[in-house]
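Quick question about two entries, pasted in order.
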Amino acid sequence: MIFRKLNEAGTPGMAFEFIELDVRASVGWFRFNRPPVNAVHWEMLDEFVPALQELAARPDVKVVVIASALERYFSSGADISAFKDTEPGRMQHWIEKTHHLARVIRALDKPVLAAIRGVAVGGGLEMTLHADLRFAAEDARLGQPEINIGFIPPIAGTQSLVRLIGRSEAFRMLYGGDLMDAAAALRIGLVDSVSPSEQLIDDVQAFGEMLASKPANALAAIRRCLIDGGGQTFDAGMEIEKKQAVDLAAHPNFEEGIAAFLDKRKPNWV
């Protein structure tokens, strides 16, 4: 089946076979759709970057959400059969593609959220580690089981996990390779919110619409400060903050925000 991205007027865009894209109230949804378990093979991986970039480039999309079209599976991770008899050069190509994917997600200038329901393991879960916030259904099960096949999370998973949940929890998670429930994931900071399963999509949509009401350039600046600056020294991070603040002050949205605040009215962002 071929999925076509629709804008809010219903106009079709680029077609994808394993990714379903749609836009609702300025929130763009990127959904894995390779039944039965959203196992990622080469062809599916090849669609990730162009689908994300196509969605994020739309002027009617203010927020991007990574999700699944399947209720029971967010993603089972990589399709292991794709790695049978894989030569080192071929595996290096896979890793280079997944690292490029991680960089693309982190470089987007719009907020990126994740809506996780069902089983979320391996590479599928790793993609969400590069999102700004992760929302999970209460019956979600999450983990990085790569150790059980003698491997590691290759979508920059080791680097994102240690920064997200800390060194000790990252070691525990990666060494053990076990799955955890949503409540445990919330306790260690792997996810940021847990919702009843039937309410998850609505909760993420509502949060996305709230973000979409904010000035887009300020959201982008916050993303750069936290993602780029958060991985550098404090002084280097302050330099990024200074540049973003100076750029924001020169933007019409700053003048509009000040005027709206003083006039006690809703701002009109550009």
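Here is the second entry:
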Amino acid sequence: MSSLWQSWKADVACVFARDPAARSTLEVLLTYPGVHAVFWYRLANRLWYWNFKLMARWLMTIVRWLTGVEIHPAATIGQRFFIDHGMGVVIGETAEIGDDVTLYHGVTLGGTSWQEGKRHPTLGNGVIVGAGAKVLGPILVGNNARIGSNAVVVKPVAEGVTVVGIPGHVVKSKKVDEAKRAHAQSLLGFDAYGVGADAPDPVERAIHALTDHVLALDAQLKMAQQELVRLGSVLPEVELPNLDACMLDACEAKTPDVTPNSDSANPNS
């Protein structure tokens, strides 16, 4: 029971490092449904392995009614686990969660099969799963990975990367040494919701790449047109749409240098 007490203390203490709204231990104990759910899960988990399985399931059903968090008592959860806001979180029977993991509201650690055995994901240490994200199937999410809000992840995730989108795409690698990571942590604080400020939208990146490609092709066509005119061809005038409306403020498009050389600048030379 002393181990259970130590786990409860650690679950409360970790809240202050991950939620700036937490002001006192009493406030956390009285008003954080995610903390309440984890408290009762730890007791139900012991009941489950003491073979009081029906009692454990019944206890967690009551907890679901009271907190909006559904945790199967057979799930394996490490130390300093924090569920922020809590409502709508579902953690399946064979889910495994490491130490220092954070989940936000609406997260599902679910299965993709009705077959017995390992059906739910395994989360490594230090993982953050953003609001509304779904991590499905017996996949491994590596240590210190980030799952962005509303992402749907059905494939394994490497250590230290950020995944966003449907289906999940890797958008940022966080393979940095521990000294740099600790320094960033001291400056920026907790990386909430699984997406840092420097994690770009993969759709936005694709649009920028396509726009750069179009601009490069346009530059080549202009040079080809100038050369044809220099050789005496008469080309029809075609009004092309302006690309300014396609540009996104988050990234400046790189317009290639289309300045022709001195010979092609003068069509009559």
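Reply: Residues 250-256, 260-269 have pLDDT under 50 and may be disordered. The radius of gyration is 27 Å. Hope that helps.
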